């Protein structure tokens, strides 16, 4: 299978990785917690493919921080649903 050429030159094989990394950075920077699991998956894939690319301490901090944000969001959403359910039950019994 040949690689498609753009204007006579082969495309940079790192372009896709750069785009995904930029998208992940955008997600983290904008605090889009609903997409943090995707960033975690990218981080794990990079760590597996190139273990020396990310220092363990940075990897651990990023992973723990993102997981904490996801857990807090899930907890907050569950709490909101519980409060709404309790309120609905109170209205139903009146």
UniProtKB/TrEMBL annotation:
Q: Which GO BP annotation is one of this protein's?
A: telomere capping
Span of domain TERF1-interacting nuclear factor 2 N-terminal: 25-76
Reading the lineage from the top rank, the first entry is Eukaryota
Entry's Pfam families?
TINF2_N (PF14973)
For molecular function, the Gene Ontology terms on record are: telomeric DNA binding
Cellular component annotations (GO), alphabetically ordered: shelterin complex
Q: Which PANTHER family match?
A: TERF1-INTERACTING NUCLEAR FACTOR 2
Task: From the Swiss-Prot or TrEMBL record, give the protein name.
Answer: TERF1-interacting nuclear factor 2 N-terminal domain-containing protein
Q: Tell me the organism.
A: Podarcis muralis
Identify the taxonomic lineage of the organism of origin.
Answer: Eukaryota, Metazoa, Chordata, Craniata, Vertebrata
């Amino acid at each position: 299978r040949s690689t498609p050429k753009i204007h006579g030159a082969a495309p940079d094989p790192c372009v896709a990785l750069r785009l995904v990394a930029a998208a992940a950075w955008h997600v983290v920077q904008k605090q889009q917690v609903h997409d943090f699991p995707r960033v975690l998956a990218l981080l794990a894939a990079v760590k597996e493919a190139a273990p020396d690319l990310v220092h363990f301490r940075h990897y651990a901090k990023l992973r723990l921080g993102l997981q904490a944000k996801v857990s807090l969001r899930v907890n907050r959403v569950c709490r909101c649903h519980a409060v709404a359910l309790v309120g609905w039950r109170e209205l139903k019994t009146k």
